[in-house]
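Researcher: Can you fold this with adenosine-5'-diphosphate in place?
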Amino acid sequence: MNVFVVNCGSSSLKYQLIDAQSEVVLAKGLCERIGIEGSQIVYKPARGKRSGDKIVIQSPMPDHTNAIRMVLECLVNEDYGVIGSLEEIGAIGHRVAHGGEKLASSVVIDDEVLKDIEECCELAPLHNPANLIGINVCHDLMPHVPMVAVFDTAFHQTMPEKAYLYGLPYRYYTDYKIRRYGFHGTSHSYVSKKAAQILDKPYESLKTIVCHLGNGASICAVKNGKSVDTSMGFTPVAGLVMGTRCGDIDPAIVDYLVEKEHKTVHEINTILNKESGIYGLSGGLVDFRDIRKGCQEGDEKCLRAMDVFMYNIATRVGAYAAAMNGVDVIVFTAGIGENGDQMRKDICEQYWSYMGIKIDDEKNRLSGEDVVISTPDSKVTVMVIGTNEELMIARETMALVKE
Ligand code: ADP
């Protein structure tokens, strides 16, 4: 069955068409600047005459309906299409940011689920409304194709109360559902399972810590196959210092800045989300490759940003080793986790040698492969695994649609 995987943002849309039986990606790409001048679609077919090409079409996309229409046209295009007709799409899997407490696992989308996702818009105002647009547009264009929602929060619904409750008046939880939710669940679930598979150990037997380090970054403690704690919180701004997000800060800072900078709470919030983290610390750099280059050249700001980033990761992993009373496996994943070999080495050597962790330098230098980077006598196995949220969404979609 071919599953069309859709990840709809407010002005962008990432998509993949995956043969869910063979797990082969047939085509993938993204639409950028939807509703903004200069919109374009990037389309990469992986079979047919133009297999391996990167096709970029600049064309106005006033809204998401146009964008999805263009993607579908590409998929069936005579020259570079990968399927004969849209009938060959058996199901659609949607990435949805927030499922709240009610949507604790992937579900087939019906009217009631749509209502539940709508209710979660309040909790994820930047993401859920865009995800809903994607769902509605696909339903309009392909009304008979079953659709599944896969939630970023779902994997973390197994967290115990002690991990998800904040130290706030309890009624804020009962009245407003203020609690830690956590995000990147699809990635943490995929990567922790894959680690067990590679190590040939039962998933339920392991204590694993996954470090998902991309522009957005989070760490998750997975014990006996269940998420027991994670660093993002009520929203994805919490936890680690990230590309542009501040991570955990003292809440009193917001009030203080409102006064000092003569800004509104909303404006400060925007700064915490978009102008903080590595970007804020380095004075305007956000791409990890630029930070790494700066560090190699001895740039003070880059070294500072890198130090804070690594310290955040190292200490959070220490906390989660405590949360699980031990750790068997630590996995690095996502753009920075998969490519930052020097960073991985530095973290392991500077902060984790007390845990008996030893790194094999040669294996650590290998990029683009799922690999164990610790030595055989290391007390904890350290790995690098490429995340694949789209494949996970395709798997979940096929499983539910086949039921
Ligand atoms: P997100 O999905 O949150 O946007 P990604 O997982 O794509 O994030 O990661 C983006 C980050 O990964 C960027 O900071 C980028 O610099 C870094 N990255 C991607 N490829 C490489 C590479 N080859 N070497 C070093 N860093 C990389």
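Model: Folded with adenosine-5'-diphosphate in place. Residues 214-216, 287-289, 334-336, 339-340 surround adenosine-5'-diphosphate (CB under 6 Å).
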